[in-house]
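ugh ok fine here u go
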Amino acid sequence: GQSLYNNGKGLKMTLLFTSLLAPLEAGKRCRANAKPPVTTNIEYFHEDFPLRDFVIKALDSVKHTDLFGLSWILQGHELDTDDCFTLSYTIPQRVTDQVIVSNEKDYNQMIDEITSKSPFEVKVFIVENKTGGGEDNSEEDAEHDKVAGSWKKQKISDMLPLAPQQNYPPSKEEVAQTKIIQELERQYCCEDKQCGMTPCHVTGPNAEHVHLTHMHLRTWAAAIVDGKIEGVDQ
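structure:
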């Protein structure tokens, strides 16, 4: 369905991609303090994107689709070489130290952090890594080029899921879920300034604040629409 954030555009991502230094020409030396180039881009992505689709969108936005086939994250298992990039993030004014994302659990935590409080945005860092080792890497380089080339030939549109808001109008159930989620967020908005987990549910004898994540709210709303549980005000 349509994203619940930023007027339906999705979660805002400021992406900083740091690529490897270009290979030196024969006879030339790397200048002192040479810094790798950094590409910055702003994208929006749907909060329901799985990790793989998120990474595909991010790499495509900075024109580095050649890295698709060389990543543990995208392949779902360890490869013979180091992962070709490192993925991390910060949340403006809340999560200031970079947090590494290496699996779905880390990614889901990132989504929960982004959606817990406005302005619903994240700064993502992708740093390209040099794979392989040693001086004679001709075979590894050939394999690298072969894998990268095969992924370049694939259309990005064939790998990314369709963005529902761009292809089909939301169904009645999706519209109803969105309204319920907005009402749940309003009803469970925490007024405790020290909480930092709004929306949340206060429970137990110690008045513990339990953060209601985006997944919690969507599941709750779907159950209400399906008639499996009572409405928001119950």
